[in-house]
Every structure is written in structure tokens, then in C-alpha cells.
Amino acid sequence: MSIHSNYGIICSLMIAATATARRTASREKRRHQLIDATMKCIARKGMGSTTLGDVAREAGLSQGIVNLHFESKDNLLKETLASLANEYREQFDKTLHRSGPRPADKLLALLELDFRPSICDRRKLAVWFAFWGEVKSRPTYRRMCDESDRYYDSVIEGLCAELIAEGKYKNIDAMTAADALSSMTNGLWQACLISPQTWDRRKATNAVMSYLRSVFPRHYKQ
Amino acid sequence: MSIHSNYGIICSLMIAATATARRTASREKRRHQLIDATMKCIARKGMGSTTLGDVAREAGLSQGIVNLHFESKDNLLKETLASLANEYREQFDKTLHRSGPRPADKLLALLELDFRPSICDRRKLAVWFAFWGEVKSRPTYRRMCDESDRYYDSVIEGLCAELIAEGKYKNIDAMTAADALSSMTNGLWQACLISPQTWDRRKATNAVMSYLRSVFPRHYKQ
Amino acid sequence: MSIHSNYGIICSLMIAATATARRTASREKRRHQLIDATMKCIARKGMGSTTLGDVAREAGLSQGIVNLHFESKDNLLKETLASLANEYREQFDKTLHRSGPRPADKLLALLELDFRPSICDRRKLAVWFAFWGEVKSRPTYRRMCDESDRYYDSVIEGLCAELIAEGKYKNIDAMTAADALSSMTNGLWQACLISPQTWDRRKATNAVMSYLRSVFPRHYKQ
Amino acid sequence: MSIHSNYGIICSLMIAATATARRTASREKRRHQLIDATMKCIARKGMGSTTLGDVAREAGLSQGIVNLHFESKDNLLKETLASLANEYREQFDKTLHRSGPRPADKLLALLELDFRPSICDRRKLAVWFAFWGEVKSRPTYRRMCDESDRYYDSVIEGLCAELIAEGKYKNIDAMTAADALSSMTNGLWQACLISPQTWDRRKATNAVMSYLRSVFPRHYKQ
DNA sequence: AATGAATGAGGGTTCATTCAT
DNA sequence: CATGAATGAACCCTCATTCAT
Fold first, then answer.
1. Chains D vs B: touching, with 3+ CB pairs under 8 Å?
2. pLDDT given for residue A149 in this prediction
3. Which of C4, C5, C6 is most worth mutating to test chain B (most B CB atoms within 10 A of its CB)?
4. What global pTM score does this model have?
């Protein structure tokens, strides 16, 4: 075998690799495209009224496409929730690691994240609430949400613990502070969904800050 | 005809009479019965999977009964939400008027109400969240929820304003405090729904109290 | 309670009974009507190409009717086979008990039954063969067919045994004769299905008679 | 580029070469491979539940392969039946020509052929019956089966005629004997399919032999 | 020649709604 | 009022077929 044929082989291999890569990439891309369309539909029509036909149409593809890539509607919804949760987690982790270095800064950054437009977007919140609305009857959804929540709570609680240690705060424990802060975020999202006219980011931030300032006064000044 | 056949007839008659009595139960009673069955079904199977057949079966009645009393499924759901909202409002108002007389006591009573078993019951919360999950795509639901929320917020805000005036608190305004407290309640309900294992009433109360104590220290002592 | 009211009650009861009876009867009637339509469709289009829509249309009813009465297509098919088997069995038993009294007459009557127009009808045979075609992949069908076959075989074998005892035939045993006769019937039905042009009842009867005459010559004369 | 990468390339090439060889397998071979896979699928899942995807998977090939080689599913099935019929005919003709020389031996050899494992195999019978089940609604299938049957019947009838002439049998005509024998074979196959537990080759052979012996006693002794 | 992603028609099934009783 | 059989639209899903690679 000469070097020339070797060259040919290498090219073939590269093309094959690219083709495979492209096919594979395209598969992931399709899935993402469909999940995206699903979220749009859920936000617009609600979960119960979203049909696979709607999703396919939204994605500009054909009827059978969802079952081809997700096997069933149920699975599509599960993967949609997973994708949503994953997206949040990525932002959360990125924020956690890039902010700081002081725990007070990290905590503030994480709380502010929740009201950034990319997260606190009514369309996206509608999808979250659609899933939460099914949590009781779908153990899988509950488990997925629960798992994420525990992680976030533990991070928040850890930061609160550091603040308490640093500030020698006597009247508060880390877990209670974390519970209060986490629940406020969720409740404020709900307000954003239900009362968008009266809701605004500043109000939400004020509510959270009012807690931080009065509980951790040495870290968050007026 | 012998006495025996008479006996059988009389029994039949009594059964028939009972059935008739049941059948002629007042319109309102039947509607309530169906709404109740609806909530049970939503809590158990989720809103998307609840059929009119399920509701009728749960109520022990026949297939067409819901359309007879509510015209359509859509209407049944709207009335179910209205009933749920009404029930809460009644408890809220009763609590507001019976507690007191000081605003600090009233505020505390209202916040504690939210974690009483009759309100903070996972089955009932499941129904609430089911409706919130459809809020974005069903303007009617949103309007109904929004309306109630505004009322509660205004009451809470009024009480906070009284506390602020009484306590001469400088670093907080009534609206912010009301926002913080209301959103915490909603967020804690969500925790109850999603993480029932780690959730308990004391934790929830602690979270709320931690806010009251640090923001209104002169009213709520450690 | 006077006799008059009693009279009214009795009338009501009778009406109720009639109504119930009619409802119940109508249910069975509907099922039979649908099974009948199913057989017609299978005979005309084949089992694989028969849709529930076809069956409903054939019965002059609406799309959802089959699932209302049979839960699933699978169940409809099973019940169709059961009905077909039942119909045959009734004819078989009737023939068995009405013919005779001698075993030779009974055996002949049973074998002739298989080629009577009501049984050996190409449309009906098509349905039988449609089910036999699925026997390998559907254990339920196999079991149902097997069960019936055993019963018929045992009756035929019993009659052959009586003939053998009566005629003191040396060269044949009852089981072999029964196997030969039963299998001939099935094979001749197949010929009727596949080669209707060359098939006729006389030919079929001749084939069976040729066996009877040569194996049981003292019972069946030339 | 090191020798190691070369090694990898060469291996890839060899795999590719094998794949190519497989891909360029003669058209006929591929068709046969697919027909074989079709029979396996029909035997396992039934004709109605066999999809082109199943066939392709069974053959270890790709989704679109059947349409490439057979244009349509319908055509694949027709060719499968043709192949099945052809296979039987080859064995029949081989047996006919190799056995003998006396007609009694030929007839016996042909009848015994039908119960040899290579023919009377439940998997293969399942396929036969699957096609017979569609005979009524698919004229093409009927015609194909009919054509073959006529040929076999004519051969059997011819042999019977020779026996009758040789043995000077008075009470039987060739056509009737051929009908009886052919139908017995088919009926015994059905027994093999439906009641495999109680069926065995000896029983089947006995049934056929009981006919031959009593109808052609001078050729087939006890 | 072969692949496998994509299509879209059509199947079984569910269910809100209607209506005769 | 109440029933429950019946309807038929619309859903999810399957699968033969096509086509770019």
C-alpha cells in the first residue's frame, strides 16, 4: 500500500468521521429543537392542550417526528423538564463560580440570577409551573424537581452558614435563612406569572434584599 | 299477590325513594359534590388526565352528569377554581376578624393560617398548582387568581403599614414586607408539594418568623 | 298503602324490568352485531386489513362503538373467535344428540355436518383460516382452537371405538381413525377455500366416505 | 503519522472492505436473505404484526432495504410465498424422481415427505397458514396456492390411478383417493400447528397409512 | 448498493358531548 | 333530574415509503 492510498484512506476516514459527527450532532440538534418547540407550545397553550402535532408544527417538521426522536409524548415531556432544569443549573453553577470571592457576594449573585430576564421570563416560568402543576400526580416530575431543589438549597444554606460564622449572627440559623430565601424566589416567580402588571424586578429584588439586610445586617448595608 | 311480593315491592319502593331523594338533592349540593370530586381527581391524576368520566365515577353518579350541571368541562374547572378560591377567602376573612385585636396578632394569625392542615394539605395544594400551571394559557384563571392575590396582599400590606407606624421602623416599607411575606407563603407551599419528606410546618413557620422578627423586632420577640 | 298504589308500583317495576331487560338485551345484541360485522370484514378484506372503522361502518354505527363494547380490537377479535367456535359447537352438539341412535349414524351425521352450507361457507371458512394463520404468534387463539379440537376429536374417537367394537375391526384403532377423519375435514375446508372452482360437496363427501367404507365396511356399505 | 495510526487505518479499511463485500452481495442473495428474515418474522409475530423494520432488523440490515430490493411490502410477501412454494416443489419433485421405481413406493415417499422435519416444521407451517389466512381476500395468494395444489394433486392422482390399475381395485377412483390423501396432509399440518403437544409424526403417518392400507390393500400390507 | 432520517397517511383509542329513555 | 349508550373529533403512535447522503 502506497502513501497515496493511505492518503485516500485518511480522507475517507475524516469524511466518515465528519458525517458521523454531523449525523450525531444533527440528532442532538433535532432533539433540542423539538424540546424548544415544546416549551413554546406549553407556554402558549398549556401542557394539557399541547399536542405532538403542535410541537411538530412549531418546529416546522412533520407529524411523526417527535415519536421518532423521543419514542413517546411522555418521554418528550420528561426530557423537556430535564432540559429546563439543566439549563437553570448551568446558569446557577456558572454564577456560583464566577461571582465572589466573598460568600456575601456569591449569595447575592445567586439570588439576583433568579430575576434576570433569561431566567425570570414569563414564558419559561409558565413551563416550570406547568410541570409543578403535575408534580403530585407524576412522581417522576417530583423527583426531578426535588433533586435539583436540594442541591440549590444546600448551596444557599452553605453560603448562609458562612455569613453567620463571619458575622456572628445569633438570631438565625442557616437552614431557616435558606428556606426563607429559596421560598421567596419561588413565590416571587409565581407573582411574576400571575400578576405581571404589578410585578417588577425591583420589587422582587427589594423583597429579597429586605430579608438579607435585616437578617445579615453586617454584610448587606442599607 | 302475597305478602311476600308486597314486601319485595316495599323494599324496592324504599330504595327507589332513596334514589329519588338523592336524585332531587338540591342543585347546589350536587354541584358542590361534583366540584369536590373534581378536586379529588385532579389531586390524584393531574388536571390533564382528569376526565368527566373520572369525576362522575368519583361522585358515584352517571357519565353525563357533569354536562348536565356545568354545561362543559371548561366551566366545571372554572367553578372548581372559584370554589377553591372562595374557600380560602372565607378562612382568611374569618381569621382576620376573629384574631387580634392588635395588627401584630392579626398578621401572625393570617400567616399561621397558611400552614394549618386544612389549607396546607398536599391534595389541595396539588389542585392549586394544577391551576397555576395553566395560568399563562388561560387568562380567566390568571384573572381569578390575580384578583384574590391583590386582596390578600392589600390586607397584609395594611397590617404591615400599621406595624411600621406603631414601631416606627425606618428600614422597611409596607409593600416590600407584604411582598416578601406573601411570596414566602407561596414558595413554602411549593416546597410542601415537591419535597414533602423534608418539609414540615415548624420549618415553614420558622422561615416566616425569621422575617417578622428581624424586620419587626419590636413586635415579634425572639 | 292501598292496593291502588301497589298496582302502580307493580307497573313501575314491570316497566323497569322491561327497560333493564331491553337495555341488557340490546347490549348483547350490539355485541353480536359487531362480531357479525367483524366476520364479514375479515372475510372480505382479511384480518390484517380490517380496521375498527371498517367494522363500525359495516355495522352502520360510529367509529368509537367497538371500543365502547369490546374495550380493544384485540378483545373484539378474541370474542369473534369465541363466537365462531361457539356457533360450531352448538351445531355439533345438536347434531350429535339428534342423530342416531346408532353410532354409525351419529358419526356420519357429524361428518356430513362439516360440509353443510351453514358450516362450509367460504366466508366463514375465511374467518377460521384467518385465525389459524395467527395461531403460532397468538397463544390465546391456539389455546381456544386446541380446546375445541380436543373435544370434537374425543367424540369422534368415541364413536369410532364403538364401531370398532361392534364390527370387530382388527386393522384399525379408534384414535387413528379419528385423526384421519378430523384431518380430512380440515384439509377439505382448505380445498374449499383455495380451489372453490374444483371443489364441491360431493367430492368432499366422497373422500370421507371412501375412508369410512374401506375402514368400517360392515357399517358403511358401498 | 505513526505506524500505530496506520494500523488503525488498515483495520478500518478491512472492516470497510468486509462491509463493502457484504453490501455488494449478489442481488439474489440479498433477496433470499430478506425473504428468510420475513419468514422468521411471520412465524414469530404473525403476518399482521410483521413490519418492514422487523424484517430489516432480523436480516441485520437497514430500514429502507426492503423497498430497495422489493419495491413494496406487498411484493415482498408475494415473493415470500413464491419462495416457500418453490422450496416445497423442489423437494416434491426431487422425491418424486428419486423414489420408486414402483408407483406405490413413489406415493408413499411423497406422503412421507410431508411429515419430514424439513417440511413439517411449526415455524414453516406458521408461514403457510399465515398466507392461507389471507387467501380469501388476496386473489393472488389464492391463485399461487391453487396452482401448486393442482400440480401436486394431479401427480398424486396419477399415482393412485396406476395403483388402481395394477391392483384392479373396484371400490375407489383415483380422484377421490387423491383428494382424501391430500386433504389429510393439510389437516394433519393444522393439527401440528394447533396441538403440537398431542401431535407426533407417527400418529400422522398412521392416519395416512390407515387409508392406504384399507384402500390399496394389495400394495400396502398391514 | 446501502443507509437511516424524515415524512405523512392511517390506525386504535379516548373522551367531551348529546340525546333517547 | 338523571342515566348511560352512542357519537365523532382529535389524540398518540406506527409504519410503509421516500430521499439525501
1. no
2. 95
3. C6
4. 0.88
